[in-house]
Task: inverse folding
C-alpha cells in the first residue's frame, strides 16, 4: 500500500474490518505517516483519528453528527433504531439528560451496586457445591436479575435465563455477518416486543410503574417536542440501560483473566479494598479490548491538524488505540492498576466508553455504573478461593466483541479468609 494514500481511491475496508476485528485499525495506522488514517467503510470515505487533540476535535466539533453514522445492522442488533446514540442537537440534549439523571445519580448507582452485590452473594453460595462456574455466564445472569429489579422491571425467575441470553446476544452479534448476527436480530426483536407490550400497558393505565423507578422515568419521558417518545423508542431506550449493564459481564470475564495472568492482583485487591478495586476496574477497561472506536459524520469540510476532511466523511475516533498509545501510557501493554491508584483519570485520558463531557456529548452515561459494578465484582471475585481448570483463555482479536474463549471457568470455589 502507498504511504500518504490521499491521492488514490481507497478500496472499501468493511469486510477486512469484519474479518480482522481489533487488529484492523492498528494495521491501518502502521501504513500511515500522517495524523489520520484515510480509508473507506460502508462505501463512503472514512478517516480515523486518535490522541488528546483528536478526542477534543471529535467531541467538540458540532459539525460531526451522529445521525447516519451507524449502519443499519448495528442499530438492528446493538443499539436499536431511534436510539439516543443516533440523535443530534436539541433532540440529543433532551434525551441524554434523562440518561444522565438516571445513570449518574450517586444514590441510584449505589442502589444498583447493592442489588448487584446481593445477587452475586446469592449466586456464589451455590458455586461452593463443587460445580464448575463459567464466570461470564454467571455474571451476565446475576447482572440481568439485578438491573431489572433496580429498574423496576418485572422479571419472573423462570425467565432470567432467556432474558439474559437475549441481552448478551444483542452485544455479541452486532459486528459479524454470521449466525451470531441473526441471533442478535431475533433477540432484539423479542426484547423490544416484550417491552413495548409493558410500556403500552403502563400508558393505558392497565399496569403501574413504581413511582420514581427507571421504568417510570423512561415511560414518562418527554422529548424535545414536549411529547412522550413513542412506544418503540421507549423500549429501545429501556434496552439501552439493561443491555449495557449486562455487558459489564465482558469486563468481569476480563477481570477473571487478569487475576489469572497476574496472580499478585488478587492479594492487592484483597488488601486494597474498594479504593484499589476502582483503579483495577479502570485498568481492566483500559487494557482489554471492547469498543474499538466510535463514529460520526462530517457535515461540511472540516480540518484536523491541518488535514482536510471532506463533507460526508465518516470520522472514527480510535478508542482502543488511544487507550494503548505509547505516547500517552507508560508500557501500555502491561496490566498495571497502579496507573490509577489515588486519582481519578482526566476527562479525555481514559476513553474506553468515549470521551468529552457525558452531559453535553455522546460519552457513555453508564461509566460510573460500569466502574462501580466492575470494581465491586472484581473485589468479590478476588475474595473467593478457586482453581482454574484446564481451559482456553485466549482472547481472539479478530472477533468483535471478544472475551476469553472459555468464558473463564472456575472450579472448587470456596470463600476466602
Ligand atoms: C454510549 C461503551 C456501559 C449506556 C457508549 C459509547 C461507548 C460505550 C463507546 C459511545 C460513546 C460515543 O458515542 O461517543 C460502554 C462500555 C460499557 C458501557 C464498554 C461497559 C459494559 C454502559 C452502561 C450503560 C450504558 C452500564 C447504562 C446503564 C450508554 C448509553 C449511551 C452509551 C445510553 C449513549 C450515549 C449517547 O449517545 O449520548 N457506551 N458502555 N453504557 N452508553 Fe455505554
Result:
Amino acid at each position: 500500500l502507498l504511504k500518504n494514500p490521499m491521492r488514490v481511491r481507497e478500496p472499501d475496508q468493511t469486510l477486512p474490518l469484519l474479518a480482522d476485528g481489533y487488529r484492523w485499525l492498528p494495521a491501518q495506522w502502521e501504513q500511515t505517516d500522517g495524523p489520520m488514517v484515510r480509508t473507506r467503510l460502508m462505501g463512503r470515505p472514512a478517516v480515523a483519528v486518535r490522541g488528546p487533540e483528536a478526542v477534543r476535535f471529535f467531541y467538540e466539533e458540532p459539525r460531526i453528527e451522529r445521525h447516519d453514522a451507524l449502519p443499519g445492522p448495528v442499530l438492528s442488533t446493538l443499539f436499536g433504531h431511534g436510539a439516543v446514540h443516533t440523535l443530534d442537537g436539541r433532540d440529543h440534549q433532551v434525551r441524554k439528560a434523562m440518561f444522565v439523571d438516571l445513570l449518574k445519580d450517586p444514590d441510584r448507582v449505589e442502589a444498583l451496586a447493592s442489588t448487584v452485590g446481593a445477587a452475586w452473594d446469592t449466586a456464589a453460595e451455590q458455586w461452593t457445591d463443587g460445580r464448575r462456574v463459567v464466570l461470564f455466564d454467571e455474571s451476565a445472569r446475576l447482572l440481568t436479575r439485578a438491573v431489572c429489579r433496580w429498574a423496576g422491571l418485572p422479571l419472573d425467575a423462570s425467565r432470567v435465563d432467556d432474558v439474559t441470553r437475549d441481552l448478551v446476544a444483542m452485544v455479541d452479534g452486532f459486528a459479524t455477518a454470521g449466525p451470531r448476527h441473526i441471533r442478535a436480530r431475533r433477540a432484539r426483536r423479542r426484547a423490544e416486543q416484550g417491552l413495548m407490550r409493558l410500556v403500552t400497558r403502563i400508558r393505558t393505565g392497565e399496569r403501574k410503574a413504581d413511582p420514581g423507578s427507571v421504568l417510570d422515568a423512561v415511560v414518562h419521558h418527554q422529548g424535545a417536542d414536549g411529547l412522550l417518545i413513542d412506544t418503540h423508542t421507549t423500549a429501545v431506550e429501556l434496552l439501552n440501560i439493561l443491555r449495557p449493564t449486562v455487558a459489564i459481564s465482558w469486563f468481569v470475564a476480563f477481570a477473571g483473566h487478569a487475576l489469572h495472568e497476574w496472580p499478585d492482583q488478587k492479594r492487592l485487591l484483597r488488601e486494597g479494598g474498594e479504593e484499589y478495586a476502582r483503579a483495577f476496574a479502570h485498568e481492566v477497561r483500559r487494557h482489554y479490548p471492547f469498543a474499538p472506536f466510535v463514529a460520526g459524520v462530517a457535515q461540511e469540510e472540516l480540518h484536523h491538524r491541518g488535514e482536510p476532511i471532506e463533507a460526508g466523511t465518516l470520522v472514527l475516533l480510535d478508542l482502543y488505540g488511544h487507550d494503548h498509545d505509547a505516547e500517552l501510557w507508560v508500557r501500555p501493554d502491561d496490566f498495571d492498576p497502579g496507573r490509577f491508584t489515588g486519582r481519578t483519570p482526566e476527562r479525555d485520558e481514559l476513553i474506553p466508553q468515549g470521551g468529552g463531557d457525558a452531559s453535553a456529548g455522546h460519552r457513555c452515561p453508564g461509566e460510573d455504573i460500569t466502574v462501580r459494578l466492575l470494581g465491586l465484582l472484581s473485589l468479590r471475585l478476588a475474595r473467593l478461593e478457586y482453581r482454574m481448570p484446564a481451559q482456553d483463555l485466549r482472547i481472539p482479536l479478530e472477533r468483535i466483541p471478544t472475551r476469553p474463549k472459555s468464558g473463564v471457568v472456575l472450579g472448587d470455589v470456596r470463600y476466602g479468609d
Remarks:
- The mean pLDDT is 96.
- DSSP finds 15 helices and ten strands in the chain.
- The longest helix spans residues 179-203.
